[in-house]
């Protein structure tokens, strides 16, 4: 967040493009990236359906990190992807505002990924 409490521009631009570039360089597939983004969106849907009961979705955020660890053991995703997810999930646990930031950041990474993986 910036000094005014808003999401930093880098979440949408430079930082997201850098993450996408690293993941593309490690040969992560857009299918794997999208699968995890879809899991995150499912958590968001559960949050909205619960009348914004953030405590209800916290276990899902913990499980998100676990699911990444499992995919690493299968060789589906990289350690760098785990770092991205774990850092953002740990921030997202702090509250709804941080959770929204994670979703926006992940969406930005996903958007840039297709572009940088073609280069």
Describe the protein's architecture and organization.
- The protein is mostly helical and 119 residues long.
- The chain has helices at 9-12, 14-25, 30-49, 54-73, 79-92, 96-117.
- The chain is built from six helices and no strands.
- The protein is globular and about 40 Å long.
Q: What secondary-structure arrangement, pairings included, does this model have?
A:
Blueprint: H1 9-12, H2 14-25, H3 30-49, H4 54-73, H5 79-92, H6 96-117
Helix pairs in contact: 2-6, 3-4, 3-6, 4-5, 5-6
Mean pLDDT: 92
Structural class: mainly alpha
Count of runs of 4 or more consecutive helical residues? 6
Please tell me how large the radius of gyration is: 14 Å
Q: How many strands?
A: 0
Question: What oligomeric state do these chains adopt?
Answer: single chain
Brief descriptors of the model:
119 residues, mainly alpha, 6 helices, 77% helix
Write a compact overview of the structure shown:
This protein has 6 helices and no strands.
């Amino acid at each position: 967040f910036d000094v005014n409490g808003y999401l930093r521009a880098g979440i949408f631009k430079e930082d997201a493009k850098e993450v996408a570039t690293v993941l593309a360089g490690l040969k992560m597939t857009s299918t794997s990236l999208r699968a995890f983004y879809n899991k995150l969106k499912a958590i968001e849907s559960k949050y909205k359906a619960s009348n914004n009961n953030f405590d209800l979705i916290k276990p899902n955020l913990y499980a998100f990190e676990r699911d990444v660890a499992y995919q690493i053991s299968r060789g589906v995703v990289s350690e760098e992807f785990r770092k991205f997810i774990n850092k953002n999930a740990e921030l997202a646990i702090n509250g709804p505002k941080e959770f929204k930031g994670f979703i926006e950041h992940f969406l930005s990474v996903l958007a840039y990924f297709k572009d940088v993986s073609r280069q």
